[in-house]
Amino acid sequence: MTAQADKRITKYPSRVLNEKPGFLGLSVFDFAVLGYFLILTHTLLTHFTLELLAFPLSGLVTVFLINVRLKNRPKVIRDYFFFITNRHIYPKLRLL
Fold it and tell me: Where are the domains of the chain?
């Protein structure tokens, strides 16, 4: 094996190699959440006769989620919400 082949093999961190592959970094659970988000926003916006706005809104959330999943580790969103909801552990930090 050459030195260049070694660099290509060890280029990625082990967490990337051990994660389950998905379409654009999204898992089946992510697609389920996006589907429920679309249904929920469509239902809520129907009362204001803006139901067609649910599709671009879901598209923006999808693009945001793809960006997060491809650039960060998979559980970063869960960890952020866990951090925010457990303020009694970190009482002096105010992020919102």
Answer: 23-85
